[in-house]
Design brief:
single chain, 75% helix
């Protein structure tokens, strides 16, 4: 690996161990075996490097939401169905539970985001990508074919559910909503909305 990749890997390890606010540039240099100047050269700033490392960690976790990786096939139920909804959320619940340290970083950013404006700006820009990345799991349409309307409505819906689920799982994983409960709730909402 080159310095750029070494820095990214070192920053990931530092984030998982210390979080955003307690990670210093010297920590990253020590962990990556590089030098201070290489942070500025490759990433512009420590905060930009940490933001990139965080995005990389979240992407790797998000890849675990789909048991088939990037491709269709591992999900057994029909796209758009309640069965698919429950199947996908079951995989998401497992992935979120296995990646607690990464999701704790998310909440550190939410609480401390005003103190890290560069990081916040980069992550706000990445939000749409996160929304569009969730959609294929549920509707079976490749990400590059998702329309802006779908990303802005369905993508936001799934992202909101994911963020709420993360809060529950971090706060009290024993009582957090599971995939079956989430699906039953949606079924009841749909049923109520279609009456009358």
């Amino acid at each position: 690996m080159g310095h750029r990749e070494d820095l990214l890997e070192g920053a990931k390890r530092c984030l998982l161990e210390k979080g955003f606010l307690r990670t210093t540039a010297r920590d990253i240099v020590k962990e990556s075996g590089t030098n201070l100047a290489s942070i500025g050269y490759h990433y512009g700033s420590k905060d930009a490097l940490l933001a990139q490392a965080y995005v990389s960690l979240v992407e790797a976790t998000g890849d675990r939401f789909d048991p088939g990786g990037a491709g269709e096939g591992a999900l057994a139920s029909a796209p758009g169905s309640l069965e698919r909804f429950q199947e996908v959320w079951s995989h998401i619940v497992n992935a979120v539970g296995e990646s607690r340290a990464i999701w704790l970083l998310s909440f550190e950013l939410i609480v401390q985001g005003d103190r890290m404006p560069e990081v916040r700006r980069m992550l706000v820009e990445a939000e749409e990508q996160g929304r569009s990345g969730l959609l294929p799991l549920f509707n079976g349409i490749p990400e590059e074919e998702q329309g802006k309307d779908a990303v802005d409505s369905e993508g936001r819906f799934y992202q909101t559910l994911l963020q709420g689920l993360m809060v529950q799982m971090l706060f009290n994983p024993e009582t957090a909503t599971d995939a079956a409960q989430l699906t039953e709730g949606l079924r009841r909402v749909i049923e109520g909305a279609t009456k009358g």
